[in-house]
Design brief:
The complex is a heterodimer of chains A (427) and B (307).
Chain A (H helix, E strand, L loop, with lengths): L2 E11 L4 E10 L2 E6 L8 E4 L4 E4 L1 E6 L12 H10 L2 E6 L10 H14 L3 E4 L15 H7 L14 H11 L6 E3 L12 E2 L2 H6 L3 E2 L1 H18 L3 E3 L5 H12 L4 E5 L1 H5 L21 H12 L5 E2 L8 H4 L16 H10 L6 H8 L1 H6 L15 E11 L18 E11 L2 E5 L3
Parallel strand pairs in A: 1-4, 1-5, 6-7, 7-8, 9-12, 10-11, 12-13, 13-14
Antiparallel strand pairs in A: 1-2, 2-3, 5-15, 15-16, 16-17
Helix pairs in contact in A: 2-3, 4-6, 6-7, 7-9
Chain B lengths: L14 H18 L13 E6 L5 H12 L3 E6 L2 H5 L4 H10 L4 E6 L4 H8 L3 E7 L5 H15 L6 E5 L6 H12 L3 E5 L15 E3 L2 H4 L5 E4 L4 H5 L6 H8 L3 H4 L7 E3 L12 H4 L6 H20 L5
Parallel strand pairs in B: 1-2, 1-3, 3-4, 5-6, 5-8, 6-7, 8-9
Helix pairs in contact in B: 1-6, 1-13, 2-13, 4-5, 6-7, 6-13
Classes of the chains: A alpha/beta (427), B alpha/beta (307).
């Protein structure tokens, strides 16, 4: 039987509010013991002195481009990138080619993830057939095959009647609807956030209300239907305020933001670097501050990556022609440490909560916790190490990140999935 | 003065740099009136004009400017469709580099595109208009024309009328004029005014009749009819009635004031023919100054010498 001893790490578990120097004994796929000074011989020992030992991270929102675009990413390369970033579970969005709208593709992804045997990969299936926004997908078949949620991510469900029915129907399975909130008429042609910066740069803007109008609509629909709503990649102050109010009213809503929305503001676009072209766009400093406050007061439940791989050829175009998206699995932890821990002085409980137990609860996974008897999905973090994100280090097939060749702080040193060491950083 | 390698925009230039362009251009104006208006300042230099968007005037203006300085000029116009067939701007840049060109004049339909060339070329790059971003050479010739007429820019009252939202000419003029201390206002339907333009210290007006008498310079912008199709204003007729420089409206202007237009004009839409050809119009002066200004820009960036 597989046995691992993690020695002398600072074990932090936000679920049980555990934060102490302790050793962890893993046997098989379970955490057997969490105690001080465990002395056991004849097994693999990881010295975690000076490190943080956390439940493995769970990303509710990434794009693995599989099936359809193996030149950008595959299940295998995406899972390798996830592990390098400290993620033990990732949920992949269904805007693939073809989209994940039938149980065959859901099964393909699950089988492929088993074959590559790296981290846990769960598909999010489409809300509507072919992701066309017209007829709802076969939720029952999709859930049976293993889908953890429904989303037409990349697009909002334009037709409120279709979304209403999808929300109502989702209640059979108690599975959340992951909405990508943007009014596609208001955002039409938008290349970046509409602001003084877009005015100066002469780039067509997408206004923050394009997001907020749909957030407001979706919250009303969630209240009306009583269904579970999960709002994807929240980026504006107005959205945070709407969600805060709805939560007070008891609407069954959760939401996520991404590291680039609390790390950058729209002045970074001044270089016309296409790696900053994302959807929704990087917003103003006022929005960035509101996102940080939303994370602090818990209005924002989790941090997802929206990892969106694109090839060099696609991103080397002029700003207007390049596709939206940046990769994020391998930089999320550093961005969290550099911004939220080191600058904003968040506690480790506050940030790990949003990377582990909160997303686990949204998709009803039993992982995301360190305690005796729990499944051994663990990340060991060095929060201080400085390292350079070179193209050779990046595990994703795509290199579209503004951090390319830049120095970052903090990284995952070891990642354990289901009791097995799946990743170890190169020293 | 040691200039930057490229001229990609007016934003970020200091007043000294702008004045250096203006002063140099004024010296070159004299050459244009000579019987043989050519000097050997850039002999042996190769200048490429690379136009990814149709334009005749600007490309001709640059070609003439380069020839007046004895540079060799190669003109290239690419239609959007041939570019989309696969050659990226980066490939284009690498090819240009391999052919040892000294300077590239680029016009592109995408905002920010000249920057890709500038970052990848040893040759100097002059932005001849990129998307809805900047058109620095036009703004410099506009400011030159204003200074010629009034003798100063500081505290000059300049009004830009029309589609500011899509206008690179407006942006470059705003950056340059504000740097030199002018008062700049814009007047257009709110749908054609970019958000937060007030943050650039620009006043915003919607009613042209109420304010046209307060300005020394009134600059009309070209209005494109596809803006009407995308719902930004209801009709050409209504646009002319509210924002056109009509004969009646121009009568309200100050006695010494001037009318400018970057061309090409939509006669009878944003400007009446009588006004475009009338006594207040300096439109043809702008065109002539354009050649002198582009000579100055090429001269400065190519490191030319007067023999």
């Amino acid at each position: 039987m597989n046995r691992i001893l993690i020695k002398n790490g600072r074990v932090i578990d936000p679920k049980t509010r555990f934060d102490r120097i302790a050793d962890i004994l893993i046997e098989g796929n379970k955490i057997q013991k969490v105690e001080r000074n465990l002395k056991i011989d004849g097994l693999k020992v990881i010295d975690a002195s000076g490190m943080i030992v956390s439940p493995g991270f769970i990303d509710l929102h990434c794009h693995l481009r599989d099936p359809g675009r193996p030149d950008e990413e595959t299940i295998e390369s995406g899972a390798r990138a996830a592990l390098a970033g400290g993620f033990t579970t990732i949920c992949c969005m269904p805007n693939t080619e073809p989209p994940i709208d039938n149980e065959g593709i859901v099964s393909y992804i699950i089988k492929e993830a088993e074959r590559v045997n790296l981290c846990r990969v769960f598909p999010i299936a489409t809300i509507t057939k072919k992701r066309e926004g017209k007829e709802i997908s076969e939720f029952g078949e999709l859930v049976k095959a293993g889908a953890k949620g429904f989303s037409d991510d990349g697009n909002t469900v334009r037709d409120a009647r279709v979304l209403r029915h999808a929300m109502e129907y989702s209640k059979i399975f108690d599975i959340p609807i992951f909405e990508h909130p943007v009014d596609e008429d208001l955002s039409k042609g938008g290349l970046m956030n509409e602001s003084e910066v877009s005015t100066r740069l002469g780039l067509a803007g997408s206004p923050s209300i394009a997001e907020e109008i749909i957030v407001a609509r979706d919250l009303m629909l969630a209240k009306f239907t009583g269904a579970r709503l999960h709002l994807c990649h929240i980026s504006t102050r107005g959205s945070v305020e709407l969600i805060r109010r709805a939560k007070k009213e008891g609407v069954d809503v959760t939401c996520e933001t991404c590291p680039h929305y609390f790390f950058f503001n729209d002045t970074v676009l001044e270089t016309y670097n296409t790696n900053y072209k994302v959807n929704p766009p990087i917003r103003t400093e006022i929005d960035r501050r509101a996102i940080i406050e939303g994370l602090r007061d818990g209005t924002i439940d989790c941090i997802s990556t929206d990892h969106a791989p694109h090839t060099r050829a696609e991103k080397e175009l002029e700003f207007a022609s390049a596709p939206f998206g940046m990769i994020g699995l391998e930089t999320a932890l550093s961005m969290v440490i550099m911004q939220l821990i080191n600058i904003e002085k968040f506690s480790w409980f506050e940030v790990l909560d949003k990377l582990t137990i909160k997303p686990a609860q949204i998709i009803k996974e039993k992982t995301g916790v360190i305690k005796e008897g729990a499944i051994a999905d663990i990340v060991i973090i060095n929060p201080e190490v400085k390292w350079r994100l070179t193209p050779e280090i990046i595990k994703s097939k795509s290199k579209n990140t503004p951090f390319l060749n830049k120095e970052l702080t903090g990284r995952a040193e070891y990642v354990i999935v289901n009791g097995e060491i799946k990743y170890q950083a190169t020293p | 003065m040691n200039p930057k390698k490229d001229l990609l925009g007016i934003e970020g230039l200091g007043s000294k740099e702008i004045l250096n362009y203006l002063d140099t251009a004024e010296k070159f104006l004299e050459i244009l009136d000579r019987p043989i208006p050519i000097i050997p300042a850039l002999r042996g230099k190769t200048i490429l004009t690379l136009f990814f968007e149709p334009s005749t005037r600007t490309q001709i203006s640059f070609s003439i400017a380069a020839k007046r300085l004895s540079a060799d000029v190669v003109n290239f116009s690419a239609s959007t469709s041939s570019v989309k067939k696969g050659e990226t701007l980066l490939d284009t840049a690498k090819n240009i580099e391999a052919m040892k060109v000294d300077g590239v004049i680029v016009r592109h339909y995408a905002s920010g595109a000249p920057r890709i060339l500038a970052e990848n070329l040893n040759a100097f790059v002059i932005n001849a208009g990129d998307g809805t971003h900047e058109h620095p050479t036009q703004a410099l010739l506009d400011i030159m024309t204003m200074r010629q007429h009034f003798g100063y820019i500081k505290n000059l009252n300049v009004l830009i009328v029309g589609d500011v939202l899509h206008s690179r000419v407006a942006r470059s003029n705003i950056f340059g004029l504000k740097t030199l201390g002018a008062n700049v206002a814009v007047c257009a339907p709110p749908t054609l005014i970019p958000v937060d333009i007030e943050k650039l210290n620009v006043e915003v007006f919607y009613n042209l009749d109420e304010i046209i008498g307060d300005f020394d310079v009134v600059m009309a912008l070209r209005i494109q009819l596809e803006r009407q199709e995308s719902g930004l204003f209801p009709s050409a007729r209504e646009y002319r009635n509210l924002y056109g420089l009509t004969v009646e409206r121009v009568q309200k202007m100050k006695p010494q004031s001037i009318i400018m237009h970057p061309g090409p004009t939509n006669r009878g839409l944003e400007i009446d023919p009588e006004v475009a050809d009338g006594p207040k119009s300096v439109i043809l002066k702008q065109v002539k100054n354009g050649v002198a200004m582009r000579m100055a820009i090429l001269f400065i960036h190519a490191g030319g010498k007067i023999e």
